[in-house]
Structures are given as structure tokens and as C-alpha cells.
Amino acid sequence: MYIIKNISTRLAHHPDLAKVIAHKFQIEESDFKIISIIRRSIDSRKRNNVWLNFTVEAEFSGKAPIHHDIVEVIEKKEKTLEAIILSDLNPVIIGCGPSALFAGLALVEEGFKPHFYEQGERIQPRDEKVDYLWLHNQLDPDSNVQFGEGGAGAYSDGKLTARTRDKYSDKIYAYLTQFGADKRISIDALPHLGTDGIKAVTTKIINYLEEHGAVFHFSHKLTDIKTVNERLELTINDEKITPEICLLAIGNSARELFTKMHENKIAMEAKSFAIGFRIEHSQEFINNLFYGDKCDFTVTGPASYRLTAKAGEHSVYSFCMCPGGSVICGSSEENSIVTNGMSMADREGRYGNSALVASIEPSHFGHDVLAGMNLQRNIEQKAYRDFYNAPAQLGRDFLKNRVSAKLPKTTYRPGIYSRSMGELFPMYITKALVTGMKHLNKTYRGFIDNGVLIGPETRTSSPVRILRDHHTGESINTPGLYPVGEGAGYAGGIISSAVDGLKAASRFKIKK
Ligand SMILES: Cc1cc2nc3c(=O)[nH]c(=O)nc-3n(C[C@H](O)[C@H](O)[C@H](O)COP(=O)(O)OP(=O)(O)OC[C@H]3O[C@@H](n4cnc5c(N)ncnc54)[C@H](O)[C@@H]3O)c2cc1C
User: Fold this and answer.
1) Which domains does the chain possess?
2) 494 Cα nearest atom in ligand 1
3) Predicted TM-score (pTM) of this structure
4) pLDDT tens readout for residues 54-67
């Protein structure tokens, strides 16, 4: 079996790949057979000349041509994880986001019946709470965009990009298709499900887990973790439980718990993350700027982009682009503003947005374990003025350091108010953003000038890392505690968090 890479074709719904391959390698179509398409990406490096790029698996009837784009598949020996034997059939999982749910799937596959504890609510009441915030300015700190069934990814673009592809990520895509996602997600280079898609899949996963003996406790909050008599002790809704192990899948916004864990001396460290805001344009502007006006958008879908610039020791980059989506209020603490982005599966909205952020490290904000978290909170509180309206500024005014006299309509609810975004951040972040954005404005003509900034975007990834043993995944000083997913500080995004949870849970075996 061979992998054939870099098969480039003009935009078409059903390109004749055999013909393209035969032409590229000067062979006959009868010399090979395409077994399957394994990757499809959009090559938009040249505006008005957007192409498709494919990678396929194929077999050759004779000798394969010698070419660097044709690679023989050699089965790699995957390292097997060291097994950890448990006698308790009911491991505890805290959280109900991607890392928790995929950990749960690995556990039920082994025959465990995990117990989940999640502070937020199920999707339907959670939807009502989220709407209530967006329409009536009232936040439930335990059930919101960050917290509840499906975790932070439940209100998202549902981008399913994997950092690396291996047997674990393949398994995640297989599970997602088993629970209703389109098979294309494992082929597309930038797959996405949309908020509607991700919620539907999540509910099916939970139903499946329940059918296999898992038990879900929503509106159950973990408030303390300690070791008592060499056994883990968790306090949940004021009751104490002492499970054999706990998979801690709490996401990047579990601030009360991070603080408690730090007080209890559970080993953690500050980690780098990124801070900035959302930039929103009309999707038509984005389509035109990145793909051009001659592109067949029925093949490509609305244009997406990924931009980077250097600003001294910081990187300034776009992140979590939501074509046809909206900027949303993702606050989880009262009287503070956090923005993020989401879209539906069809991405048919008239606007597109992405985060535009600068990378920062403990050397910038301090090495104290909670320094990054405190910086986030400080910025979010500064951004709050009245109700949950978000500060906003025209991109061109941000570069010129002047408050915008007039702001256009945006997708953010409840609403926006005019503010100099630079004053939300410490000077080093503002300077980095201005430097990086000036570069981007030059390279992608008018990209910043024509955008409106809405912010702040502070929850790009976890500000802490919960230290765990490299081989076992267990906390280095709290036996029985297995931190997983984004909150643990080893993952960022839906797929990598899901992989982290699945991989950690795959180690556990039942004592015979
Ligand atoms: C609006 C938005 C859009 C996003 N879009 C994308 C995207 O398109 N693609 C992508 O890859 N990523 C996206 N992300 C990021 C992605 O959602 C996260 O990376 C992912 O959900 C992390 O998974 P997780 O399981 O580690 O944590 P989470 O999904 O954050 O789940 C953690 C869960 O733990 C619960 N919890 C926390 N503390 C406690 C406690 N003390 N007691 C009980 N329960 C607790 C929380 O309520 C939460 O439900 C988006 C995030 C947001 C907010």
C-alpha cells in the first residue's frame, strides 16, 4: 500500500483524481487503484487561484514510480501504554467536556462503569441559561458557555483539527462518526461540526455511556481534592467521596478549583497561553480577501484563514477562525467579559471572526502558579462596564490608538460599547498586538483596517499545568488523581483534549 501526496486539482465537486495522478506521474490509470482519500485540503495561497489538494491511499499493479510524493506505508509499531489495574469498577470523572466523555468511552469499552460529576447542566437548561445571558444580561456562574454537558466545546465552531494524527485521534474520529458526524471529518484538513453538530453528537455519546452503565451527575460541583489516609478524598456538593481514582477533566476555566488545588499543594505550574480579542468582518470581505472573487465557494465553503506574525519575543496569530459565525459572550464569572466564537454546521452567517492574540509566558506575567489566571481575570473584569456588553474598537483605530467614534453592527450579543482595547491589557501585550497587526495589515491588505475588534479573548488555553507523571499520567504528588484535557495543561482544542482523555483512560484495566 502507498500514500500519494500533493495531488492538486482545480476546484470541482468530484475531481477525477485518477486522471490527475496518471498525468502527474506519467503513468496509466490502469497501473494503480485508489483505495481511499485520506486528506482533502484547500490550497488558498494564491488569491483567485484556489485549488484542492488531496492525499490518497493507493495500490500499484507493478512497481510504484519513484517520487517523493509516493511513500510506501510501513506499519509502525505503536508503543503500548503501561496498564494500571483497578479494583473499583466505578472510576470518577470530573467534567463533561471532550476529555471526560472520550475517557468515559475508553473506560466503558474495558467494562468500567464510570461516575461523572459535572457542575453545569444538561444541554437544554444550559441553552436557556446561555440565551438568558445573551438576551437578558444574567449569568449563571455554574452553567454557561464554558460549563455543562459537552464542556466548553458545546458552543463552538466545532472545529475538529488534530495536532497530530495517530491511533488515538483516528479512534476519536471513528467514535464521532459512530455517533452521527459526517465521515468527511476524518478526511478534511479543517473538519468542523458546528455548534448544532457537536451538541447532537455529545448527547448521543452520553446516551451510549449511560446504556453501558455510566452514571451522570449534573449540577454537581467538586470543591475540594485532598489525600486523606493515603486515599483520594473529593468534596462534591458538600459530600465526601473516596474513589480509587479520579480523572480530572475540568477545562481551562475551573478557577475556584485551581485555587483550591494550589492551596492544597497539588503540584502545578504557570504555563504560557495567549491573550487578545476577536476580529470580525463581513464574510464577503474575508472571501474576497483570501480566496478572491472568482472562487467557487460551493466547493470550498466560506473562506477561512490562519495568520501569523512575529512581534519581538511574542507571536501574534489568528486562532479559532469561525467562518459564517458569530462572536459570543463566554463569561463564566459575574461582572466580567470573555469573548469567543461559534458557528453552525452550515456556516451560513453573514460575518466571520477569529481570535487575534499575542503569545505570553510566565517570564512576562510572573511564575506564581496562579499569575496567568489572575491576569486573565483582571483583564476580564476591566472589560466589564455595564451588563455584559463587550468593549469594541475599529481595527484601524486600534492601530492609531484612538477610540472609535462610531462602531458598525456586530454579531456579539447583548451589545458592544466603544473603548480603547489597548487599555485592557498590560503594555507588553498591547505593543505586541499593534506590531503584529501592522504586519498582518500590510500582508493581507486592509485586514485590520476593515475589521472590528471585540474582546477580550483570554481563555485561549489553560493558564496552569497540573503536573503529572510522564508514564502513568498520575499527578506527581497526589496519588489516584489523573489530570486530563485542556485544564490539565497538556491539550488545547476539542480533538487534542479528547485524545488526552481517551489515552489516559486506556491505561486502566479491571482487576481479574
Ligand atoms: C466558545 C468556544 C468555542 C470553541 N471552539 C472550538 C473549536 O471550534 N474547536 C476546538 O478544537 N476547540 C474549540 N474550543 C475549545 C474547546 O472547547 C476546548 O479545548 C475543549 O472543550 C476542552 O475540553 P476539556 O474536556 O479538556 O474541557 P472542557 O470542555 O472545558 O470541559 C470541562 C468541564 O469540566 C467542568 N468542571 C470544571 N470545574 C468543575 C468542578 N469543580 N466540578 C465539576 N465540574 C467542573 C466544566 O463545567 C466543564 O463542563 C472552543 C471553546 C469555546 C469556549
Assistant:
1) 2-72 (3.30.70.2700), 88-269+464-510 (3.50.50.60), 272-457 (no CATH)
2) 11
3) 0.95
4) 999 999 999 999 99
